[in-house]
Amino acid sequence: MIFLAYLPEILVLLIFVGGAALIIWYLKAFYAERAARQKKAEEQQNRHGGECVLEWSGSFADGAADTEFGRLVVEIPKKSGNGAALFYEKGLVLGKKRLAYSEIKDVLYAASTPDKKYTLKQAVRDMAVLWIYPKKGRIAIGIRELNYQFDNETMENIKKGLGF
After folding, report:
1. Tens digits of per-residue pLDDT, 24-69?
2. Concatenated DSSP letters for 64-118?
3. Burial of 89 (0-12, 13-18, 19+ CB in 10 A)
4. Does position 160 have pLDDT exceeding 80, yes or no?
5. Do residues 77 and 43 both lie within one domain?
């Protein structure tokens, strides 16, 4: 009988403890995955004498080298207007933003789905995005399929080439 009197409090306590355990499990998995990506990036840096470079096995883009970042590796043109996302050997130039690969803490790629999109909401939800997260609290850079002409294979190769 005493057990039944405290049943609502016990259920609330179980829900609270279960929720806390679920949050802790999720955060541990998230940080473990991030640590694994960071370890791969550090291994890639060690292969190049501690220097962050974009490893690329395909053909290189035609274009002038950058004085700071070296040879042009990949150029992703905009869908409309002038401009492109320029991936050099040692850094990225996106409009007026310049980011050395040594200043990147994480890179994530969400691939696009091949399904036909009938509404703007579906197009935005299913578009591909390459997220580049700089160190030191700077704003993340998103290269979106909506604005740039790229395919899943190229963006996945860029992510892998950076070591993430």
Report:
1. 999 999 888 888 888 888 887 888 777 888 888 888 888 888 889 8
2. PPBTTTBSEEEEEEBSSSS-EEEEESSEEEETTEEEEGGGEEEEEEEPPP-SPP-
3. buried
4. yes
5. no
Q: Is residue 63 part of a domain?
A: no
Q: CB atoms < 10 A from the CB of 104, how many?
A: 20
- For CA atoms 23, 24, 27, 29, the dihedral sign is negative
The answer to whether residue 61 sits within a structural domain is no
Q: How many distinct structural domains can be found in the chain?
A: 2
What's the domain range around 85? Answer: 72-161
Element (H, E) at 44: helix 7-47
Q: What is the mean pLDDT of residues 137-151?
A: 83
Backbone angles phi, psi at 92, to 5 degrees: -120, 135
Instruction: Answer yes or no: is 66 within a domain.
Output: no
Q: Give 117's pLDDT tier (boundaries 50, 70, 90).
A: low
- Whether 42 and 101 share a structural domain: no
What CATH number has the domain bearing residue 90?
A: 2.30.29
The answer to whether position 126 is within a domain reads: yes
Q: Are residues 22 and 90 in the same domain?
A: no
CB half-sphere exposure, 19, CA atoms < 13 A: 6
Q: How far apart are CA 159 and CA 70, in angstroms?
A: 19
